[in-house]
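pinned: reference chain
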Amino acid sequence: MCRSIKTLRPPYTEDVTDEDVRAAALQYVRKISGFRAPASHNAEAFDRAVEEITRSTTALLDSLEIRGRRAG
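pinned: its structure tokens
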């Protein structure tokens, strides 16, 4: 159904883009919902979930400390 979500924190990935974070959020929502693309009546909820998960993921990565240093 979808490719694997990759680890986005150092040392696994040093250069994480906004696009990387959004792609991971999209893959998560696709996996959880079971839809690759939602029907029009579900599109707003689907898109909102992707945006919320993108924001949460960015906040998480920005606040992680890896071996005494900030990851984000």
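why pinned: The beta strands are 65-66, 69-70. Residues 18-62 form one domain.
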